[in-house]
Amino acid sequence: MSTADVESAARLVSYGMRPKQLPGRDVVYADLVRRYREDSAFKQLTNSVAAGLGLMVLDVSTQAGAVLAATDESVFEIKMDSYARQSKIRERRDTEKVLHGLVHLATAALGYPRPDDLANDTYIGRVSVEQVDSVVREACRILDERAAKAERNNDPLSDAPELEQAWRAYARRPAAAATKDGRLASDTTRGMVSRALRFLADQGFLVQVSGEQGGTYRTTPRYQVQVRELAADSAFEELLELGVVAVGDSAGTLRPSISDTL
Fold first, then answer.
1. Which domain of life does the protein's organism represent (predicted)?
2. Global pTM value
């Protein structure tokens, strides 16, 4: 293929690195997406360009555009320190990392609790700060009960001490507390969730639709592609199997299976 083809492939990859850019808003982007889907040689070239940059093309569609993921040790991989800076996280200890991992896992599970939701390209989920916090707290309660039962049976869950530390640390934190100027305190669990959801919105995975329940967001096609990859992770499946995520109405409004108020 020609130098112009390589340039076009690189441009498509660059579009994918702009989280909020969509083919529906850019004629050039839409044309490159169409070419990727119809021209197998151009598709292979684009995938190769992405791979050379340490990226993997997860999907290319008219709805989501080019959805990319960084491979291990890629310069584009979002490290905890980078995430911490963007999300204004003060502490970067291992336990804190796991806590934020639980929040992101719960957000994905609430957004797409059924396999059919991930398979349906028209499905739109909704999540809120209060919902995510409630689901993580309920998951922590169930995990704590399991740990206590295992200890009574002289079979402690020693294979995952970091996770055990994390769920207990999450449960001990207050859900909400206001600062002097009325903002949500950063060291509360809902403050943590709020930062995580804003980060996902900045990445083009969520769109805020209201300030209700601490902030309510809808999912995007870009996020759906990412969660499809996450759904293969055992941790995602285990969270769903805890039974703390339930589907609300057929319109796609989701709710946790416990009360939104703590």
1. Bacteria
2. 0.73
